[in-house]
Structure formats: structure tokens, C-alpha cells
Amino acid sequence: MVGWGWLERPVRKAAGGEELGALLGFLRSQRGLAEELGEWAFYAAVALILLALFKRFPYRYFFKTHRLLAVVYLVLVFHSVVLMNSAYWASPLGVTMAVLLLAGTLAAAISLLRRIGGSRRALGHIEALELHKDNRVLGIDIRLQDRWPGHQAGQFAFVTFDPAEGPHPFTISSAWQGDGHLRFHIKGIGDYTETLPQTLTVGDPVTVEGPYGRFDFADGKPRQIWVAGGIGITPFIAGLQALAEQPDGRSIDLFYSTAAPDQTFIERLQQLAGQARVRLHLLVSGRDERLTGERLREQVPDWRTADVWFCGPAGFGRSLRESLTASGLPAADFHQELFEMR
């Protein structure tokens, strides 16, 4: 009948054309919603980032509100997909955007489902507690029930004592012996850590996630200088234990500055330093002269050949770094633990 001219030949549509048109039509219908949600999501992102930078905001709340950034990101993905010119999707720009948005969406889903670090978590229980009252440091021995991959001296882990509080980052202050035992030294300097001596008991369940961090004393130089301020001594305790178990022949000086020396704590540190063959320099605030770059250079004449590893208050570390680098130490040879998560 088409051949006789009674009917017109139907126009063939590309496969999937109707579905694609419907999808584009739906996206166009959502432009108003996408614009409004995108604007509010931007404001929410700025507020959450500023809140994260406000250090007085308690960590237990920051840990929860920070996860809201994943929700904000998903809203911005919707905003971008709807408002992006449909002609761009077939271009290299569109393909790149699609890959990035998909990767970000998967990451946001993993975060919201609390799967980040899931493969690194191990269950255990508190095996022993020891409070050093003079420096307000609580020693916590943990026996792990699950497999632990092992860690390098100087690394840290996220530890959950109370699920309602959530995980907190603490440096592991014991070398790994392959026996499922971890030790942490935690100083009561915050609204949460101050309560641990009263709230923790032997036998309490614990979740440990890690290890993380690159403050591992691995530089290859035979000469090192370690500097610790306050509770920043914890990675060096693990380092001393590792050297006591397996000496590597390096020559090391450890400077430990503290404002609240605990006799038992100091005696154990001195004993451990002796076993590791590390020269310990104890500096007590108010009694000894403050450690400066000049004084360090006087105490360690061959400092130019050494790597410096520092863990402690940021201002203390910055002062030492500036003094030593100004005197010729390469900046790459000064390693500083951030000491703070935000």
C-alpha cells in the first residue's frame, strides 16, 4: 500500500530514541528543583567545612556532622546532572564528568553505609589499664580477637571505646610482636579523653581500625634525631620498643620535653631507651632550658647528617624546623607528625 501511494512510509526512530527523549524531558522538568537544591547544598557544604575548621567543636559531633558532606555531595551530583547541557555528555568533557561523578557517588555511598575502613577493623577488649597521675596519661593494653595486619612503629589507629562516641585517633605506643597485643598512651587533654580513666574498665570491648600514617622513621639514614613534646612521645615509645627487639645500628638521640613528668613513666622511658641504645635527653619545663634549634645543634654536633623526626605541639615543631632549615638542614630531612586531625 505504501508502494501504491496510499500510505506514507513510517519514519524509523533510532533504537532507544524514545527512552532517551523521555529521560532528557524528565531532566529538563527538574531544572528548577535542581537549581534550588544546588544552592542550598552549596550553603550546607560551606557551613560544614567551616564547622570542621572550628577546633572547639567537639570531635564526637564533628565525626557525625562530617558525614553529612556525603549527603550534600549527592545533592550536588543531582544538580550537576540535571543542569549540564545534554550535548556535552557525548564529548570528552561529558565522559570525564560522568566518571568523576560516578566515583564520587560510590565514595559517598561507602561513607554513608559506614564501610570506610571496614576491612581494617579488629575487635578486642581492654586487658589492662594504668594511670600515670602526674602527667595524666592513661596506658591501655588491648588484646585483639580478630586478625591484625601488623603496624610500623609510629603509626596510629582509630579506637572506639564507646559506639555512641565513635572512633578517636590515637598513636600506637607499642611495637608489633605478632601476638595480638596493642598498647596506647592517651593523655586527658580533651572533654572526652579526660573521662577515660573513670569510664574504662578491664574487659570492655574495643574496636581498632588501622593502621594508618607514614611517621615510621623509614629514611635510610644511619643518623636520626627524635624530638617529642608532651604526649608526642607515644610514637617514639613504639620506636624504642622496635629497636630494643631488633637493633638496626642507627645512632639516635631522643629529646623529650615535658611539663608534667611522672616518675614511673620517666623511669620506664629511660629503661626502654637504654635497651634500644638510644641517647635520651629529658627536658622538664620550668627546670630545664627550652629546646631550641641552637641548643639541639650544640647537643648533636653531627646534626647535618641526620634526619629529624618531630611529634608534639605545632608551634614547637615549627620553631625547630625554621631554625634547623635556616642553618642548612634540608627541609625534606625534617619529618613532623601533624599531631592533630583537623
TrEMBL record:
<dbReference type="InterPro" id="IPR039261">
    <property type="entry name" value="FNR_nucleotide-bd"/>
</dbReference>
<keyword id="KW-0408">Iron</keyword>
<keyword id="KW-0274">FAD</keyword>
<keyword id="KW-0560">Oxidoreductase</keyword>
<keyword id="KW-1133">Transmembrane helix</keyword>
<dbReference type="GO" id="GO:0050660">
    <property type="term" value="F:flavin adenine dinucleotide binding"/>
</dbReference>
<protein>
    <submittedName>
        <fullName>Putative ferric reductase</fullName>
    </submittedName>
</protein>
<dbReference type="GO" id="GO:0016491">
    <property type="term" value="F:oxidoreductase activity"/>
</dbReference>
<dbReference type="InterPro" id="IPR013112">
    <property type="entry name" value="FAD-bd_8"/>
</dbReference>
<keyword id="KW-0479">Metal-binding</keyword>
<dbReference type="Pfam" id="PF08022">
    <property type="entry name" value="FAD_binding_8"/>
</dbReference>
<keyword id="KW-0411">Iron-sulfur</keyword>
<dbReference type="InterPro" id="IPR017927">
    <property type="entry name" value="FAD-bd_FR_type"/>
</dbReference>
<feature type="transmembrane region" description="Helical">
    <location>
        <begin position="40"/>
        <end position="57"/>
    </location>
</feature>
<feature type="domain" description="FAD-binding FR-type">
    <location>
        <begin position="103"/>
        <end position="218"/>
    </location>
</feature>
<dbReference type="Pfam" id="PF00175">
    <property type="entry name" value="NAD_binding_1"/>
</dbReference>
<dbReference type="GO" id="GO:0051537">
    <property type="term" value="F:2 iron, 2 sulfur cluster binding"/>
</dbReference>
<dbReference type="GO" id="GO:0046872">
    <property type="term" value="F:metal ion binding"/>
</dbReference>
<feature type="transmembrane region" description="Helical">
    <location>
        <begin position="69"/>
        <end position="89"/>
    </location>
</feature>
<keyword id="KW-0285">Flavoprotein</keyword>
<dbReference type="InterPro" id="IPR050415">
    <property type="entry name" value="MRET"/>
</dbReference>
<feature type="transmembrane region" description="Helical">
    <location>
        <begin position="95"/>
        <end position="113"/>
    </location>
</feature>
<keyword id="KW-0001">2Fe-2S</keyword>
<keyword id="KW-0812">Transmembrane</keyword>
<dbReference type="InterPro" id="IPR001433">
    <property type="entry name" value="OxRdtase_FAD/NAD-bd"/>
</dbReference>
<dbReference type="InterPro" id="IPR017938">
    <property type="entry name" value="Riboflavin_synthase-like_b-brl"/>
</dbReference>
<keyword id="KW-0472">Membrane</keyword>
